[in-house]
């Protein structure tokens, strides 16, 4: 876990919002046809009102920081929170 990389990733409100949405995907992505255990399909993030390329950039930052993981299934890419890394980060921050 790279604490500095995570802090940089969390510095943008859209990325924090994406992580919040991913915490309860059923509540925020009700239109998804695929099971949520696969993650949330990248196309579902259009809800934030940003272009696909901007959303992809935000997801890439979150992935580099280890806060989300991705999985390609055919033509789709699915994203999930990395709860283990998030818990470790929160524990580290709590010890400051």
Report on this structure:
There is one protein chain. With 96 residues, the protein is an alpha+beta fold. The chain has one domain: Winged helix-like DNA-binding domain superfamily/Winged helix DNA-binding domain (Arc Repressor Mutant, subunit A, Orthogonal Bundle). Helices cover 49% and strands 15% of the residues. A three-stranded antiparallel beta sheet has the order 1-3-2. It comes from Sinorhizobium medicae. This is Transcriptional regulator. Residues 1-96 form the HTH arsR-type domain.
List the helices and strands and how they pair.
Layout: H1 3-9, H2 13-23, H3 25-28, E1 40-41, H4 52-64, E2 68-73, E3 76-81, H5 83-94
Antiparallel strand pairs: 1-3, 2-3
Relevant terms:
96 residues, alpha+beta, Arc Repressor Mutant, subunit A, three-stranded antiparallel sheet, 5 helices, 3 strands, globular, transcription, DNA-binding, WH_DNA-bd_sf
Helix content: 40-55%
The major pleated sheet works out as: 3 strands, antiparallel
> Strand percentage, roughly?
5-15%
Distance between the termini: 16 Å
Q: How many E strands? A: 3
The 3D shape can be described as globular
- Strand arrangement, major sheet: 1-3-2
CATH class reads: Mainly Alpha
Structural class of the helix and strand makeup? alpha+beta
* Integer count of domains: 1
Mean pLDDT, rounded to whole units? 87
Kindly report the CATH topology: Arc Repressor Mutant, subunit A
Q: How do the SSEs run, as a string of H and E?
A: HHHEHEEH
- Report the radius of gyration as a whole number of Å: 13 Å
Low-confidence stretches: none
**Can you tell me the CATH superfamily?**
Winged helix-like DNA-binding domain superfamily/Winged helix DNA-binding domain
In DSSP terms, counting alpha (H) and pi (I) runs of 4 or more, how many helices? 5
